Amino acid sequence: MKHARKNHASMQKIFAEKSGFMLRLWQGLIAGGEEMDGLQAVIFSLNDRICGADASQVREIIKYKDVANTPKQPKFAEGFINLRGNAVPVINLNKRFGLGNSVNAKKAKVIITDVDGKQIGFAVNDVLEITKFDGNDVEPPPKAVCNPDNAFLKLIAKRGEKLVSILDLEKILTDREIKRLDDIINSTL
Fold this sequence. Notes:
The chain has helices spanning 2-19, 26-31, 93-96, 175-188, and strands spanning 38-46, 49-54, 60-63, 77-83, 86-92, 109-115, 118-124, 126-134, 138-139, 153-159, 162-167. The protein is an alpha+beta fold.
């Protein structure tokens, strides 16, 4: 609970200072994210696209800064950050999904998550809000677009006339890519 309060305060400060959005639904976020009657999601921008992630997968959101490059890192990796003494790889989701390279350092955020017990950071252009979608506004992606190359597409959420792709942060990287990042951390840092 102490860790949840610390993350809560950290995320609240980021949103209050940088995004200007009122924070909502924190009790549900701390309680676990997905509920029977809907989904709580962190909504973010990737160049000209709006995506989201299940809030229960988000450990914390930090400002994009002090990213160190290392030799032989994957093309979609920005580098590594020091997060409270731990080397955390930062993946540029724009590069990962072939959406270009740009991450505006003034607004960019890093979404920290745990993948197989390892911390991974995902760089996004900006975190826009944390919101709740009602159960009838969330559905699985159409079978026609489901394939092994986009297994990270978890849900489609509807916000009025707009659709938001909800990503499964644990499936963005393959096991092989995670191992490669681990090897770089162990050999370089």
